[in-house]
Hints:
Elements: E1 5-11, H1 18-26, E2 34-40, H2 46-54, E3 57-60, H3 66-80, E4 86-91, E5 94-96, H4 100-110, E6 114-123, E7 130-132, E8 136-137, E9 143-144, E10 161-162, E11 172-174, H5 175-180, H6 193-203, E12 207-218, H7 236-251, H8 257-277, H9 281-295, H10 298-310, H11 328-362, H12 374-390, H13 393-408, H14 428-436, H15 454-463, H16 468-477, H17 479-498, H18 505-516, H19 518-521, H20 530-546, H21 554-574, H22 577-596, H23 604-620, H24 622-630, H25 651-656, H26 666-678, H27 686-708, E13 710-712, E14 717-719, H28 723-746, H29 750-776, H30 791-797, E15 804-811, E16 815-821, H31 830-835, H32 841-852, H33 856-864, E17 867-872, H34 878-885, E18 890-893, E19 901-905, H35 920-940, H36 946-949
Parallel strand pairs: 1-2, 1-4, 2-3, 6-12, 15-17
Antiparallel strand pairs: 4-11, 5-12, 6-7, 6-11, 8-9, 10-12, 13-14, 15-16, 17-19, 18-19
Helix pairs in contact: 6-7, 7-9, 7-10, 8-9, 13-18, 13-29, 14-15, 15-16, 17-18, 17-20, 17-28, 18-28, 20-21, 20-28, 21-22, 21-23, 21-35, 22-23, 22-27, 24-35, 26-28, 26-29, 27-28, 32-33
Amino acid sequence: xxSSVAVLLVSHDxxxxxxxxxxxxxxxxxxxxxxxxxxxxxxDRSVLLLEQAFGEVLTLSGATSYPAxxxxxxxxxxxxxxxxxxxxxxxxxxNPAPGALAALLDAAAADPNAxxxxxxxxxxxSLKRLLELGVTISGTGRRETGLERGxxxxxxxxxxxxxxxxxxxxxxxxxxxxxxxxxxxEQLPIFGNDLDFGxxxxxxxHRTIVVPDAVVFHAEAAHRGVxxxxxxxxxxxxxxxxxxxxxxxxxxxxxxxxxxxxxLAFGTVLRMIGFLLVxxxxxxxxxxxxxxxxxxxxxxxxxxxxxxxxxxxxxPGRARHLLAPWWVPYRHGLDFLGDLAAAATNQAQDxxxxxxxxxxxxxxxxxxxxxxxxDEDMIAADSGLLARFLTNPVALTVALVVVVxxxxxxxxxxxxxxxGLSPAPAAGGDWWRLQVETWHPLGTGTAVPAPAYVLPMALxxxxxxxxTGAALSVVFGLCVPFAxxxxxxxxxxxxxxxxxxxxxxxxLVWGSVTWALVPVxxxxxxxxRMGVVVVATLLPWLAHAALGFADPDGVRRWRAGWRVGLLxxxxxxxxxxxxxxxxxxxxxxxxxxxLVVRGAIRDRSVWGxxxxxxxxxxxLLAPWWxxxxxxxxxxxxxxxxxxxxxPTADTLDLVTGRLDGLGAPWELGAxxxxxxxxxxxxxxxxxxxxxxxVVALVTSVVAALLGIATFALAATVTDAGxxxxxxxxxxxxxxxxxxxxxxxxxxxxxWRRVLAAVVxxxxxxVPVxxxxxxxxxxxxxxxxxxxxxxxxxxxxxxxxxxxxxxVLRGTVEDGLTYTxxxxxxxxxxxxxxxxxxxxxxxxxxxxxxxxxxxTAEAVxxxxxxxxxxxxxxxxxxxxxxxxLDATSGLTQASAEERTTRAWQVDRPLDxxxxxxxxxxxxxxxxxxxxxxxxxxxxxxxxxxxxxxxA
Length: 950
């Protein structure tokens, strides 16, 4: 006898739910006689459970889609000779209540026009939360259930009504309707096939209703990511979003298709912004990938629309009243903004409540103040804050140090140039232009990429209203206070890790001030070495972020990896050598962790975050280092930024923290090294001090290797940059000395306490001496860069790169050198480009001919290269001047000094040789860099998405 109802149960790795589902099927009244169990490549006990329950199981491969599994089940029914009136679709994670099937059949008998019926879906295992009572879809592809988030079932939706679609987990459908519509769409392998089927059924004139008396408990294993299959992969959201886009584009009426195509693209951008605001980077990228997947394969959508249009009796307008109203997406947008505002308000209230609770705990139990007005509260708060500040010696000391530092850095709040720092360009747009250009009209034209630090400096200048001078002033003027702030945060955490009570505040003051003065006393600040100054400022913040690698929570370790990577990329953009040092330190730390904790290296969250931290700079700085290697300018990866030659450092300089004899007296640095050595004496803190010395040893090895390298560039010979290494080594000494001071504070041996008193007196001399020397020093960076070129020529050169000035220096006897000035001269950011540009052999040959045996071709070369003036600064070589006086095509020009000679090129200026090809590789890398910066910033932020936290 052929049963009027056949159950089609599809399973995949569902043994955790199948026993309850099988019991639920057996409990149905009337009983279920025909069951087709289909398993799609389960690797657990699913097949065994199904065989024990139903005898026969149709086994398919793991790559079989749900529509294909349903089609195979229908085929098995035909092979059996069974032609049931109804087919009941069930998932292996959908447990029907005992009366579910009976309620569905009763509703079908009461409404003969109903061809598809669905149950009320409730959450499993909570059993009370509502999931669905029929579904529809909005114009943006959102699955709409009409339910509130987490709504409980209290019978408030218990009425039979027509809907667009019902979930395949419990769908009762007439077999003839299922077959006439071609089953479920194969283009929707796992998600969205219920919506698509319901839409097609409504367009064909079939009626779908929801029956609340029929209850099915659904675990939503695939949607929640509890179960991974070859079809869902690791990106469930991508599959769901792709299914939604395909469903809309395949079923919407043709007249709405162009507008819908544009709307979905624009809506995807808005959705991505929303996901990024709640730090759901994966969902944002999944949305983009889904859109690209659909739009890059328009043939699939065309084929689906053609198949629907060819089916007789289809009218898309029949489903219009079942779709979500047009205003629903806008309501969701307002709800999202309201959620963000509520979250921000709640966070502020929590902080205020914690502060009030802390104040109440400090107050005496018997104290009960009278209520005060708002004005009285404000006055009391201000006076209390002022009183605490004036009575706190630590706060007064820190404030005094900041004031002294700002006074000493006063020359930085002006026009900065001199030493290793070239003048700032005229506006922030010049830095942006230098960043995005693939060919620079500098010298004779070059494709060497702009240094990596140009981008952060351009961003800083933009934030300051486009003033490049203000950007340099902020870097040099506020470096010490900002570094002191970061050092205080870092050393405070280190103190708490070493001793439960934490480091004394006076120790923190000494350590933070000493650390902040490192770029000053080493000579980098006074000599205008911006790269070293920035590294010294960022290093404590970078070290603070790196402490997250030791966090017991794996999620926080990964977040620390992204934060360290971002800060390392920023620091390495100013001092590329820092990345190689970080690589060496990471290898040592990971190797030590593998030796100390056996098996730890197998945990990806142990070695993964350091690997991420090292990979992020490679990604973010790719527009610089990849073209640099391509243009044979790889030396820039090991050089300090700024004008060359950069100051070097021998062994004594490394130990005392000096750059080539610059900076404060070396005795201050020797005292710091001695304090770091004495820090090994206290036993309670000996191990963390040894860790600091291991870091110092690795840094010294890297410095020794870098000290071997010497680079012969086109204009000069220079050594590898050691400025960042000096800063790291001095920072290590500061941390070791701070930890040692904490250890001395907890020692109980009397002679150790005497030693502590002596150390305090000696240690105090380091920051005091550094501040005193800074106040009395005369920084080179304030002197500016002298130019011996007439002012009118400089004004002419600023009209465009084709008005260049060829400057010849030297004598015939000692040798001549030449430089080319264009625009406002060599500015910050252009030094590295010119330093790493290889010599233009043709132009050099032309200059040699010009000063020895001048020809018309040599003068024409000057005009084609955009050279308007030739200048021989004082003291001018008479032999060279005589040759140029006699050169046809050069006319004498006036000079401000009698001993300076100048000539003007009497040819039409072209500058055609300054133009070069566009590097599309760098253009692509710049686009990827912008996207990568946004992604990394999101990954650095704390998790606010409840789904990701779960």
